[in-house]
User: Fold these one by one.
Assistant:
Number 1:
Amino acid sequence: MSTYIELNNNLEILKLTRIQELLPSTLDEVSKSNRSFVDILNELVRAEIDYRDERARKINITVSSFPYIKTINDFDFSYQPTINKQKILDLSTLRFMEEKTNIIFMGSPGTGKTHLATALGIEAAGQRISTYFINFAQLMEKLKNAAKENRVEQVVKHYLKYSLLIIDEIGYLPVDKDASYGFFQLIAARYENRSTILTTNQPFSKWGDVFGDVVIANAIIDRLVHHCEVIKINGMSYRIKGKSIFEEDN
Ligand code: ADP
Ligand code: MG
């Protein structure tokens, strides 16, 4: 077996995929340049590390279960002038997570709540911070079933482990009382411990209706807003951008 083939096989055994890929072009370059061996070897190792980092970043984003992949750069701030762009850029540094601050995006449908929550989540997941995106209705269904089987604590423990949890669409459907209490337990467990991002189309004054109980709703709001950035968005739905669906627009 030639040394080259043996080297290729060995790189395969060690799963040094990127180095293996770069080997032919690197060997071509070596024959033409007078760069030092250390320099070339270091460049190959660096390329392997970068490749692995990027792969880990992508895997972490995939397992976070985002509804779509959209970033802050994809967001048109000029369309939604009530949003303070600087504030969002500051949040995207993830400084808020150090202080275990929560974020609530509040506004009517189509104003970019899920987009911004997802974009911040992608920032975190991209830095290999354990992140998970879940729809509120799905979470409540899980808590409701868990309550029936006496294992709410287990579900709370599961969602507590994520450094950043995104709970999307609070308030589209009224929820079960046991699930509401389970939700309170989750928020209380994450309070001052881990950051949570929530999106909602309902002002806090309506959360009593959402959770079917004013006392539980107030207890949830109390824990959430103690350390929290509430981003209120007042504007038109991006989904109807450019469409004249109202008579008066014509
Ligand atoms: P909601 O507030 O209902 O959660 P979304 O964030 O899901 O709304 O926005 C609806 C759609 O419009 C998504 O595809 C989102 O990416 C897009 N969108 C909303 N606002 C903007 C914006 N200002 N710039 C670019 N895309 C936007
Ligand atoms: Mg949404």
Number 2:
Amino acid sequence: MDSVRLDRLSENVGHDVRVLAWVYNIRSSGRMFFLQLRDGHGWVQAVASRDEVTAVVWERLSELTEESSIDVQGTVTKHPKQNAFEVQLKDITIVHRSEEYPISKKEHGVDFLLDHRHLWLRSKRQWAIQRIRNTLIQGIYDFMEQEGFLKIDSPILTPNACEGTSELFMVPYFDQTAYLSQSGQLYLEAAIFAHGNVFDFGPVFRAEKSKTRRHLTEFWMMDAEMAFATHEDTIAVQEKLVTFLIAKVLVQNRDDLTTLERDVAPLLKITPPFIRLSHEEAVTRLHSLGSDIKPNDDLGGDDETLLTAQFDKPVIVEKYPAAVKAFYMKRDPANLSRVLCDDMLAPEGYGEIIGGSQREDDYAVLKQRIEEQKLPLKDFEWYLDLRRYGSVPHSGFGLGLERLVSWIGGLKHVREAIPFPRTIYRLRP
Ligand code: 4AD
Ligand code: MG
């Protein structure tokens, strides 16, 4: 008999089916067994009554342990009241009888759970999170395709820094040193000259010493880059993308959001236009809220939280002081001490989810910036070439996937948003 996926049981009410699954939970009343099963697609309760199954089946049920893998047959019934289905179990084969499972239903400390991340992924909450992440990944591809962006894969091993030299992971590379990519942006800038609008999506690395709930050392970023595009043009795409992604999760992952006990009311409010503030305006507001941020400071995590608490939509803070931002950002012609950049800050204290900017497109100015920042000019010659052969105004942004998953899922820490988190203290499992 072909097996049936647990998310397709509704199509099989009244029929006998075969299910391949794991046992999430076992309850027994002596005459009855109640098994919570999961198969990767869904969850169901299987019920067996001593009077209705053979002695062999009853014996196998009695031997079952949590997390055992099983092959069962039974009849699908609909719960009389709830919109739920059950399997009236008739037969069972134990594929593998699990040893005593280390993650019990009692509360565990987060370090214990992270040490057992390879098992923790099976729990319902973690399952829901990865499903939301998957919707966002698919949604990003859908949106970018719809908007005419071509996917370009940027390299992970690179000779130079994209986002400053202090957070680089070094890798021995034969007789040279390579760095793990912090962002594919510079390579995407090359690709716009071939394809117009492009994006990449992959793991990036930051040797972040930060221990905050927003920082990982390995995370996934979608970089987008557009030719003949200004600072304003990139903000319009960012806003449309985030709106699209939230709407998609609200449709596809309602049950998962419920599993996470995520209040969806704040997500339903995410419609364009988002809030727009200049960095200068943001600083003024922050002062009125009690922050001691200096006029030319970057916004710290606490400032981001304080500021976004004032609004129920994402806040786009633009035109930061040039000194706190990357070398490639174009200066604001109206105020040369500032750059044409934006950070999109998520509401509810989740902080920066997107960083974007218009890029410096003038050869001489860009060369000067590279020299000012004491970056190795030799390694940036190819990047400067892009300003020598048909340079255009261009802009782009990078979206941090785990930050987005955390916000949408209402997670406390970004480490739950990625299957195997890497932080300053964690390289295992
Ligand atoms: O603001 P960032 O550093 O921007 C760039 O790397 C640009 N080159 C992107 C571009 O223009 N193509 O990083 C982009 C996003 C941040 O807004 C944040 O969401 C996420 O990446 N991010 C992190 N997420 C988790 N852990 C970290 N350590 C992160 N650092 C950045
Ligand atoms: Mg940033």
